Each structure stands twice: as C-alpha cells, then as structure tokens.
Amino acid sequence: MNAxxxxxxxxxxxxxxxxxxxxxxxxxxxxxxxxxxxxxxDAWGHFSHDQSRSRTYRWNEDGLGGICDEAQRLxxxxxxxxxxxxILKERAFGLTGTxxxxxxxxxxxxxxxxxxxxxxxxxxxxxxxxxxxxxALLVDENHRRSRHEPPFSLLDAGAFAENRYWDVEAVYAKxxxxxxxxxxxxxxxxxxxxxxxxLPTLWFxxxxxxxxxxxxxxxxxxVDPPPTGAAWGVSATHPSLDTWHLYGASSAKQLxxxxxxxxEHLWGTPNASPYVKDAFHRAVVNGEQEAVNPALTGTKxxxxxxxxxxxxxxxxxxxxxxxxxxxxxxxxxxxxKGFDKTLASRLKEAxxxxxxxxxxxxxxxxxxxxxxxxxxxxSKQFFHYDVARWLDGDGVPPPEGRRWGRNHRWxxxxxxxxxxxxDTWEYPWFAAWDLAFHCVAMALVDIxxxxxxxxxxxxxxxxxxxxxxxxxxxxFEDVNPPVHAWAALECFYQEKTQRGTADLAFLRRVFNxxxxxxxxxxxxxxxxxxxVFEGGFMGLDNISVYDRSQxxxxxxxxxxxxxxxxxxxxxxxxxxxxxxxxxxxxxYEEMAIQIHAQFFAIANxxxxxxxxxxxxxxxxxxxxxxxxxxPHGIHSLPVFxxxxxxxxxxxxxGYPEQLEGLDRYKAFLKSHxxxxxxxxxxxxxxxxxxxxxxxxxxxxxxxxxxDIMRRVxxxxxxxxxxxxxxxxxxxxxxxxxxxxxxxxxxxxxxEPGESQSGLFGGNSNWRGPIWxxxxxxxxxxxxxxxxxxTGSFTVPAPALGEKEVTLEQAxxxxxxxxxxxxxxxxxxxxxVYPAESPFQxxxxxxxxxxxxxxxxxxxxxxLGAAHQTGWTALVANLIKRRYDRQLPIRPVTTEPLP
Length: 898
Prior knowledge:
Helices cover about 25% and strands about 20% of the residues. The strands form 12 sheets. Strands 7-8-9-10-19-15-14-13-17 form a 9-stranded antiparallel sheet.
C-alpha cells in the first residue's frame, strides 16, 4: 500500500484527519445568493467584485489558489501586485451574469496542476499579466459584443503579449495533518526585468460581527522573536481551532488589519475600527502605511515582500503553517527543517499514487487523467448558508417581500459543509445533479469521500421534509434529474471492486432516504397519475422549443420524455438497491417488487398504453419525444435531442448471485415475461436469461435500440468527432414548427457553440454542444446493454459507412472521441483549445489543461465555465475504462470522422 493509500486508510479509520486542511477556499464569494440581502434578489449587483476588497463576507471567503480548515475559520491564500494594477490582486476577476455576452465568465488563467485526495500535495498555477490588468476593457468589450460573437478573453486583450506575465505557482505539502509546507514561486516569463510584490495572506472568516453574543473574536499577532530558521512568524488563536502559527523563511514586512468592512468607503458611515479589510490594498498600491495596524495584531495578516526578477528568472518564498509541536527546553524547534525533503517526498508519493491507476498508459492520457482528478479535488469548497437566518436578516429586518422570495420554503436548510462544487468561480455552490457525477469521478481516488458526498444532500439539514433534494442556491426549488441513486450504486460497486467488500450499511442509509425522494417525484411530478412525468427544464436549460421551466396556460401540460426516462432509471436503480439489501435483509424484497412495478407502469405509460396515457415514443420517427397535452389533443414536439435519449438510461442488469434466494421477486419478473404489462410489450423481457444467467431490465426495447442508435451514430445527426451532440444536427435545416397551442410560434436551431439566446442567462447551451455527463451515462448504458445482448447484437453506424457495430464498439467510439477532446491529435493540437492558442505550442502553456463545462458540437473546443472539474472530470473514468479493458491505441471503430 503506497503512502497516499495509507493516509486514506488512516482517515477512514479515524486515526488521522488529513481533511482538516484542504483547498476549500472558493475563487469567488461575491455575487452569490448567500451574500445577497437586496429586496429584489439581485445577487450579482448587491455584492460586486469592486466591493469585495473592502466589504466583509457574511458566509464564505475567497482567494487565489488558497486553502482553509474544513470549517473555514482560518484561511491562507495569495495576494499579488505587479506595480501597475489599480488594485491588489487578492481574488480572480470575472464578469457577472449581466456583463458577459454569454453570462458570467471568469477572465483569468489559473490551473489546478496536481492534487492528492488527502491534500497531502497540491499545486496551483496563476498567470499574472505584467502590464496593468485590463479590467475596464474586458467589461466594455464583452458588453459591446452580441451573443452571436465569442466572449472576449484576457488572451484576446493582449495581456500576455511578448510573454510579459508571471507564472505564480503555489505548492502545498503536508508534513502531517497539522503541518502544511507552502512554496510560492513567481517566474518572469517576459523579456525584461520586472518587479512583483508577493503577499501570502492569513485571515479569519468574520463570524463575530453578526449579533452572536457567544462568539469570541479570534486574534492574529506577531511572534517575536520567531523560531530559528524563520524570518517572521504570526500566531492565530481561535476559540474552536487551537492556536496555529504561520512562519516565513525569508524577510517580509508584516501587515495587520481587521477583517471588517470599510463602511466609510462603501456607504459613507464611520468605521468601527481604523483598520479594515482593504488595508493591504491601500498600503501596497496607494502607499497609505497608516492603513495597517502598527501594533501587529488583528484578524487579517500579510507578509509583504517585493522582488526584482530578471527575464527567465524566478523568486521563491517558503512558509510553514502548523500547530508547533511541544519541545523540551533542550530541543530547539526548527519549522523549516527538512522542508525540501518533504516537498520532494510528497511529489514522489503523488506520482506513485496516480501511477497505479493506469499501467501502460500513454503520457498524454496519464496527464489528462491526473489533471482532471486534481481539478476535482481542488473543487472541494466550504459552503455556508443558514437559510432561516438569511431570510430573517442578520440583525437588519429584511424587506417584507424578501420573506416570501427565493428559497423561503427551505428554512430548514443549514449548510456548513465542504462540497465538490461544479466550478470554483462560475458555480461556487453545490448543484444536486452535478454532485452525483462528481462523486462517481471522486470514487476513483477516494471512495469514502465520494460516499460521504452522496449522503450529504440526503441529510435532514438539506433534504426537504417533502423528500425533495435541493437543487442549488439560486433556487433550491428547481428540479434536477434524479441521479443520486445511480451515483450511489456506482460508488457501491466501485468500492466492492476496490476493496472486495460491499458496504450495505451505506446502501441502506441512502436507499431509505431516496425512497422519500422517490415518493416526492411520484406525487409531485405526475399530478395526473399517468406515470409520465414533468419536471421543468431538468438541468438541460434551453434544449426545448420553449422554456420548460415556465408555466403553461390552464389545461395545458408538458409530459417530458427525459423526466419520464429519469424516473424509469431511478425506479430501476432503487429496485437494484433493494435487491442487494434483500440478500441480507429479506424484508427489502417486497420493496424491490413494489419499486420495479412502478418501472413497469412507467414503461407502459411512455408507450401510451394506458387509458389516459400520453405516448412519448414516436413510432414513425422511432424516437422518444416530449408531448404537449392540450384541451384539444396531444402534440408531439418534433425535436431530436438528449430529451429522447435519456430513456435509454433506464437500464439495469440482474445478476444470478443477486437474485439467488429471492423467489418472490423472480416470480414477479416471470409474471412480466416478454416485457409485458397489461398485455402490452412495454420493455425488455426481465425474465429471460442470457448465457451467463443475467437478466435485462431496460425501458428501451431491444427491437428499438438499432433505430435509436442509427440516429446516434449518424454524423449528420448526433455523433460528432468528439462525442454525442446535445441536439441533432438535423435541426440545421429542420428549425421551424409553426404555432403550437399553449406555446405559440416555435423553432429550434442547431447551435454547436455558445448559446445565441438569453434563455437561462445564456451561459450554457444544450442545442448542439457536447456535454460530458450525459455522454458518460450513455456509454455506461451501452456497456450494460452489450453485456446482456452480447456481441451477436449489432446496430448500424452510418458514420462508419453503414458498418454494423456491437454496442460495446459503439460505447468505445463515443468514449474515445470524448477523451480525444483533450488529447493531441495527429496535427499535434488539442481540440479543446483554438488552433492559434498558446496552449497548442508554447512551452509554458502546452501541458496545461482546462476542463470546460461543455464542448463545441463540431470542433470539440471548450466552452462555458473553464474549470468544471466538476462533472467534466468524468473523462478520468473514461480513460480508466479504456485501460481496464486494454483497448488498442486507436480501434478501427473509433477513427476520427473525416
């Protein structure tokens, strides 16, 4: 067992808390719902980037490449100044949802280079322009551009011209759970000598200024004299965090202030203290030395040093954050003893940890795998939000309308936990269905943490009494696809593979909570009891001909193929959970039967066989589609998109060892032999066994799978050079559908790149681009289909010259093309980046990877949020799949499309 595995094992057994410190500090805390106390819910406008340097956060902190403890009491991050910027660089800059021509958008270049799951080793890189940062130009030019134009980036602004920038790298290495070694290196990539100011900053989150009498204010103070080997030191005393110390190996000017708002600057009211949050900006940039506390005490500290660096040169500063060990009077404490050796050891251990996953992998694949999972680990963020207190106002009575505004039905929700966030800047809050995918990727390297994350949203502090899982802070009320059960099963089976044992206690806890959620779906999203479901936009934003989150006129309702498909998937996931539990606890067998019966009812309804049923399978186009129910009849919406492919996810396998002894359950399956329900064939036969004794539970009929796959594997429809598109390319020409009752004039167009409409803020687009999570689910579904149907079952692949392929080969085709987004192609280019980008050839950029939110439907170029690892980390699972199956480097069926 390698060193990192031992740390994970000690964490699991409670011997050591390696999670005490981690990359839990967000890249952005301003512009969030939590910090919004405005009457109308204007989160972006109420707390701006410009205010963030002077205004204290109520709920969360942020910083550049920073770390904090697991309750975010004490934080450590970088602050920088190039001698030209109008403000101290303490956090990443970006555009708000209303400023960007495609919604919110970070306008910085930073990278999560490495991370182990215990945070024993972390690497972060920030590219800092040497010229004045073009804040105004970025705002003005993006505001000028239309939605038909690409966003204007820092590269477009010429900020890195002639390589005039700094590479600022932070490495964090733990000597033990309470000792963090930090090395900050600034490298001058430019052609001339330049000066950089480095200010590693340590501060307490302000939890004392909000009217809690029992809260004791923490304190930072200079350590005088510092221990041998340290040029300076500061103590950090917090009532619930012991006393920590930060030491620096090289000389620096010590700056102290309070983490308190500069009320005079912000609102024209007197400050409670002369020393406020923006003191370091004022001292360094404006030369106001009186802004900092000469007594060398406070709640915010920075060690300020400036360095002239020659072209191609670099400067390094070393820090140690620790609870100093007790030493006898005869033994001297040396905080920097063994510093270089520990850093080298942790890197070597990280290499050994990741090296075990992909023996024989190409260097490119190994790099993609490691950076994807590093980004996922860095996406762990502390999330703090007490909804009842927020609604009531912290000491300031809110406007009356606010009490019944956003999230007012979620007063029970009290969050103070670390979540894996979708994106550390653009989406610094948990999202329910994103989190499920995060857990499946995290399970590769830290199965225990993945399981804990699965259970977190099912905790009583989050799960609504009605059984609804909260979606995200912008509206906990929104409905995300019910993928939690699928993710729980994936984690359950991953652990069984990794450890050889099954955690039935975990499965039981999750199942019992998810049954509540299942009931919520049945009762709330099938109001007519037709077994076809509604749900709104279901995370797919603009995928339909109209905004599916908006109410329809009285008497009208939309029955959704994707919502119904998700419910079929959830039913089967829960049924399989119950089967697993029933092997040890027979009382769960009846639950398996009951839930599987719901699946049959859904299958019956989706094909329109009930008296009040609404058919969502179009027998002419051989595809699933949404249906609009009106007082005058049913209208099938003629759209070919992921909406019609989601029902394919309704698939599970029944293995002989699972079903052994479950005689009542097997008799129940036999009663539906042939896939029959009420005399109709509605799904795959659950009774027939393949040669391995396995059974097939599938919403998609085997007879229909070739028709669906013909569209999927057609380059003029779904399959692209880099995955499955969100919307069929057929909608380049099939766009207008006339007037649809209850909706009006409708159209939809294939848009392979950024969204050209403002629907859902315009910052994501499902009308053509490639999205990793649904592609991953599709690959998993095809793998399961192939296992049951075997290699004798083939489907047409028009993109391969009408060649017939097995479903396993089809899965390989999709999976390899998804990985190819990040690989260098035959021309030496990575499709994820533009051909002319420095990422393609510049030695200081070419091995850096960004894992975007989604990808261009024709070129594979990354779009949307740039750090969505996040669910795009699932590329690591696809890479693991290929090497587990020992695929050849380029299978014939996965040749790039011409």
